[in-house]
What we know:
- The chain is an alpha/beta fold and 302 residues long.
- It has helices at 45-62, 81-91, 127-143, 155-159, 164-167, 184-187, 193-211; strands at 6-10, 29-31, 34-37, 66-69, 95-102, 117-121, 149-154, 173-180, 228-240, 244-248, 258-263, 267-275, 281-284, 289-291, 297-300.
- The strands form 4 sheets. The chain has a 6-stranded mixed sheet. Strands 14-13-12-9-15 form a 5-stranded antiparallel sheet, with no helix packed on it.
- The relative contact order is 0.15.
Amino acid sequence: MNKKYLVAIDAGHGMHTEGKQSVPMSKNLYIDGELVRKKGKIIKENEWNRGVSEYLAAALKRCGIDTMFTADMTGKTDIPLNSRANTANKKGADILISNHYNAIGSCAKWQTRVKGLLVLRTKNCSEKSIKLGKLAVKHLKKDIDYEYSYGLMRDVDMSGFTLAILRQTTMPAILIEYGFMDYEKEAKLMLDKKHQEKCAEAVAKAVCEYFGVTYVAKKSEVKNTEDKPQVISKTEYLRIISDSVNIHSSADFNSSSVVGKVKKGDVFTIAQKIERTGTDMYKLKSGVYITASPKYVEVFYK
């Protein structure tokens, strides 16, 4: 009989933790045609932390792995870090994963210099924590189109001190910073449920590999380059923000499907969004396909 594993999932900072929020949005934020945050409003880090934690728990359950939450998943109470660590310790969790979103400054204004993925382990941690952290980096880099990755780092090297949730737990533990709240391109993803789930699935793959458990994909998950169209309910437009971007004759990134290039500032009408394993694509009204990566394009509504 296979061992039943228990993963402690820590939903980072709470709704009331001071300063843990994005810069006020520079314009209305739409996701899949719906207004999710108005211009001038902020996004709380906890909105991401809870979302990705819930998706991670669902993914691990599907893979036969038990989970527990260390934080208040209603968002009403900020449970102290030592209480969270004690709960995981008493329950005998096999590993702990703490979910966060990063910021380089005070989130008073947008910055473009610092961005991307960061996974932390504490000073003098076990080799098992290092193994878990490296696997998280591996799968997140593979499945998420990050502009940059810091990889796995010691908490003391990044922040100048050790992190309580990692220091006070007795099991292998890592803290994942999935992006930066003061980098607008990444902040916009914090409320995107599909992005939350995509990140959670990548971490679930890492956990499964760590335990030697078979990862079980969602039945609706698209395999390889097979695509699943989503009809856009509201007219969406796409603007090129990179110097040049390839356009393709099919929903893949093979060199053989490249049919031309578009340049920075060009605007096109989106017909469909294509979900793929890896980077998603848009089908344009003209019938060609283009990357959906926010590194190269941005979506807006008129």
